Amino acid sequence: MKALDQKDARAIAQDLEEVRRQFELWRGGRKRGARIPAELWQAAAALFPRCSVHQISRALRLGYEDVRNRVECGKDEGASDFHFWDFRLSELQTNISECRLRVEDGAGRKLELELKSIAAGQLLQLLAGLWGRQQ
To answer: Which of 2, 50, 62, 101 measures 20 to 30 Å from 110, CA to CA?
Structure first.
């Protein structure tokens, strides 16, 4: 049984090292300020729960909170897959019964909202006001 545990530990360490190499390759060729690609975030999140959030963030040189948020988001959705949609709220003519929204601007400011029963236009106005932008 102990040999199996050592074998598992070796496989986990190899997986973590492979993802670390992917991050280092990306870091070596990226432009300053470039965002981490979704594929790398998915690879990092997929290491959980075999590796702890601390182990992942330390090995990959990522912020603990960022890794934890990606892992938690993957648990909420039932997968480590992230989906992003680009749409115009101003074109929606309906109410949104419930939504969880995470936004980040180019300066790295982040905002997370949980809303119930809001019109799409109201959501657009709220975001515009919070981010200081005109509609």
So the answer is: 50
pLDDT of residue 22: 94
Q: What is the DSSP letter of 80?
A: S
* 126, amino acid identity: L
Distance CA 121, CA 94 (A): 9
As given in the structure block, the two tokens for residue 100 are 């969880």
Per-position DSSP letters for 7-19, written without gaps between them: HHHHHHHHHHHHH
Separation between Cα atoms, residue 8 and residue 62, nearest integer Å = 24
Return the structure tokens found at 42.
């998915």
Q: Name residue 99's beta-bridge partners.
A: 115
Closest-CA residue to 100 (of 82, 84, 112): 112
**Residue spans of alpha helices (H) in the chain:** 2-29, 38-46, 53-60, 64-77, 120-131
- Convert the pLDDT of each residue in 51-65 to its tens digit: 889 999 999 999 998
